[in-house]
Design a protein that fits this description.
The complex is a heterodimer. By secondary structure, chain A is an alpha+beta fold. Helix content of chain A is 34%, strand content 26%. In chain A, the strands form 2 sheets. In chain A, strands 1, 6, 7, 8, 9, 10 and 11 form a 7-stranded antiparallel β-sheet that branches. Chain A is globular and about 45 Å long. Chain B is α/β, with parallel strands linked by helices. In chain B, helix 5 links the parallel strand 10 and strand 11. In chain B, helix 11 runs parallel beside helix 17 and helix 12 runs antiparallel to helix 14.
């Protein structure tokens, strides 16, 4: 499911981002880490102009999302930096032109990805707490997590059974099991995502690099694999500052 | 040298540095309390300007004491504390208790001085509590090393770590002074500003102490919370742990560019984590003492089904609401239970759970307690019983105490909780003294305590 070299490569990219002074890794780098943990991400690729964006879209298949990949822009939908669902090459061109006109500093990359629906929005997070060490959070609501405050916490590591308990204790568990005509989510597969995600806490390089990492939204898909639609990796400032990583 | 926290609890000898001839000063009260408390070892007051204090020979310094000092209690002005700790290290004291305040909780000077104290006790390998501590009481060591004059103290199954200074001291003093429904405390330590001995080390001592059955943690902050949680999960299986800890405040230093970072400062996190590790969390000091009382007095519960006996239909409804809200169950009663109660109630009344027994109690109060409460305690559908009594003169009866003593003896494995309303409340509470039947100040505290016992049982069932 995952290899040490993939994880090392992803952590190298995070380290490079941190060395460049970034506080938050860009989405491409973050998703590389998530994929290295064995968690699904949408098919996609980067483009720096509308024609390339069209080519990537045609390769992954419509509909697609086009997003600004820029570092330090974690709340992209708030900033108007996400377009989709886009159903044709023409729509991709228009959206790409609009996004490239935003002030993108020195990183003009766009991320073009397959657009996915058909699932429940969730989130999974890992934070390195100064008191409790590595904490895993799982919640429902995706983008609305802070409004709903329906979140489970555990100290990492998390077993498959404990991950299941994290899901079961949510108010939203009933919704995930399928209710009111909604199809059910494969809770076993969802628990496995939590377990794999929490495993990152065991990696000493990850502990040294990250303050927290979050997949939000995590699409708890009705069919097919669970997918990390967006992720945010908050980097530990180089040379100290902030809470220290527990050993 | 590895610090040994048990040196705080059962020291072979004690020096009080900063002992005073002035009976109003803490340095005198401390010596007095140790002596009056019946401490069996040697006590050495230290004060260069006195020859004898409280009838004991006084020494100019720790170095002048002609024998080994196990525990040194420091009651000096803060500029003199660090030197005194150095002297204790040189004299190979095993533990220090720094009563003096004005360190980490105070100004910049205090914070710097506290860092120095931490270094000194760490290097010397001494167990240490304070600065800014009320001291400790240890029944195992026959030691009352506190400037709070705990005149009355009951030994018992509880051990407690407090980190809330005078407040915790006042709470314990109040608890020990109440005429009824006290909690026996085998030892309690105020760790103060935590320069040495931690709550985690003391939990280890509690785990190993056969005289301790219940653990109370009264903490303002958790240090090394991860290790404490891991240890608590093991210890709380056999010894319930009750935690009072105010909520977490958002940490200013945290980067919270992600939702996870900002959510993790939520008090909900602490609630979930402590529950996952078998710890029962109390919301306030009233709950804290109520939970400790319930665990002290009562056997462990086997489940969440509560049988409610009430002398008031209205209070029965209030109890039902609160029990359900607490996540407990109010089961249907067994036919035998209903039949036993039916014999005492008028034909027009149909009984259930809660069982409203007012009309029976009006006619035959003693038989009502004996027959109906007994049937409820014997009911196989019921795990715990809550008795909501109206303590009013027309249903008082002579052998009230004997009736309840009989119930406790007949059903030692079923927790029985009591709430009372009425003019005879104090009289009836006095009558129950010594029977290990908790009487709560409010219905809410009774319900929360029942819930705490159930949560403790369920957390450990879920973990096994």
């Amino acid at each position: 499911m995952t290899s040490r070299s993939e994880l090392d490569g992803a952590l190298d990219a995070l380290a490079a981002a941190r060395a460049s002074g970034a506080r938050v890794a860009d989405e491409v780098t973050g998703k590389r880490l998530v994929a290295a943990l064995g968690i699904g991400v949408p098919a996609g690729g980067c483009a720096e102009n509308p024609a390339d964006a069209r080519a990537v879209a045609q390769a992954v298949g419509f509909p697609v999302a086009v997003k600004v990949a820029r570092i330090d822009l974690p709340h992209k939908s708030d900033a108007g930096a996400v377009a989709g669902p886009l159903g044709s090459g023409g729509e991709v061109t228009v959206a790409a032109e609009r996004l490239l006109a935003l002030p993108l500093d020195d990183d003009p990359r766009l991320l073009v990805e397959r657009w996915h629906t058909g699932g429940a929005g969730c989130f999974v997070g890992l934070t390195f707490d100064s008191e409790f060490g590595a904490l895993v959070a799982f919640g429902a609501g995706g983008l609305w997590v802070e409004a709903l405050r329906d979140v489970s916490y555990r100290m990492a590591p998390v077993t498959h059974r404990q991950a299941g308990q994290m899901i079961d204790r949510l108010r939203a568990a009933e919704m995930l099991r399928g209710a009111r005509g909604q199809p059910p989510v494969d809770l076993d597969a969802l628990a496995e995502v939590i377990v794999r995600f929490a495993r990152l806490a065991e990696d000493s390089r990850a502990r040294a690099l990250l303050v927290d990492l979050e997949i939000n939204p995590l699409l708890a898909a009705y069919e097919g694999p669970m997918l990390a639609l967006d992720c945010t990796a908050v980097l530990r400032p180089a040379g100290g500052g902030g809470p220290s990583a527990p050993s | 040298m590895q610090p040994d926290p048990s040196a705080l609890l059962t020291p072979a000898s004690i020096a009080v540095i900063g002992a005073s001839e002035n009976p109003r000063k803490p340095g005198h009260v401390m010596v007095r309390n140790i002596v009056d408390g019946g401490y069996p070892g040697m006590v050495y007051p230290v004060n260069p300007r006195a020859t004898a204090i409280a009838g004991l020979t006084c020494y100019p310094s720790v170095a002048d004491i002609p024998a080994q000092v196990d525990l040194a209690i420091i009651v000096l002005g803060r500029p003199f504390v660090a030197d005194a700790v150095r002297g204790c290290a040189q004299a190979s004291a095993r533990a220090v208790c720094i009563v003096t305040a004005g360190f980490g909780e105070g100004d910049d000077w205090g914070r710097d001085a506290q860092a120095e104290l931490t270094e000194l006790v760490t290097r010397a390998g001494m167990a240490a509590i304070g600065p800014n501590t009320l001291g400790l009481v240890s029944m195992g060591g026959r030691l009352r090393a506190s400037f709070v004059p705990f005149e009355h103290w009951d030994d018992g199954p509880v051990a407690m770590v407090a980190q809330t200074g005078v407040y915790a001291g006042a709470v314990i003093e109040q608890l020990m002074h109440q005429p009824y429904q006290r909690i026996g405390i085998h030892w309690t330590v105020d760790i103060g500003n935590r320069v040495g001995t931690t709550e985690l080390e003391l939990v280890d001592v509690m785990a190993a102490d056969d005289d301790v059955r219940i653990i109370g943690l009264y903490l303002e902050e958790l240090v090394d919370a991860r290790a404490l949680m891991t240890r608590a999960a093991e210890v709380s299986r056999d010894k319930p742990i009750v935690l009072l800890k105010p909520g977490r405040t958002p940490e200013g230093s945290r980067a919270s560019a992600s939702h996870t970072g900002s959510l993790a400062t939520d008090d909900d996190v602490l609630d979930q984590l402590v529950a996952q590790h078998g710890i029962v969390r109390a919301a306030d000091s009233e709950e804290f003492t109520a939970f400790l009382k319930a665990f002290s007095y009562l056997p462990p519960t086997r489940g969440p089904n509560v049988g409610v006996v009430t002398y008031s239909g209205a209070l029965g409804i209030v109890a039902t609401d609160q029990l359900i809200e607490e996540g407990l169950r109010i089961p249907d009663l067994h036919d035998r239970t209903l039949a036993a109660m039916d014999a005492l109630t008028p034909d027009w009344q149909s009984l259930g759970n809660p069982a409203d027994l007012w009309s029976a109690a009006e006619v035959a109060p003693g038989r009502t307690v004996r027959t109906c409460l007994s049937a409820m305690l014997a009911d196989p559908n019921v795990d715990q019983v809550l008795a909501v009594l109206l303590a009013v003169p027309n249903i008082d009866f002579d052998d009230f105490r004997d009736a309840f003593a009989g119930l406790r003896a007949a059903y030692p494995d079923i927790p029985l909780h009591v709430v009372m309303y009425g003019a005879l409340r104090e009289k009836w509470t006095a009558a129950l003294e010594g029977l290990d039947i908790p009487v709560y100040d409010t219905m809410r505290l009774a319900v929360r305590s029942i819930g705490a016992m159930v949560r403790h049982a369920e957390m450990h069932r879920a973990a096994s």
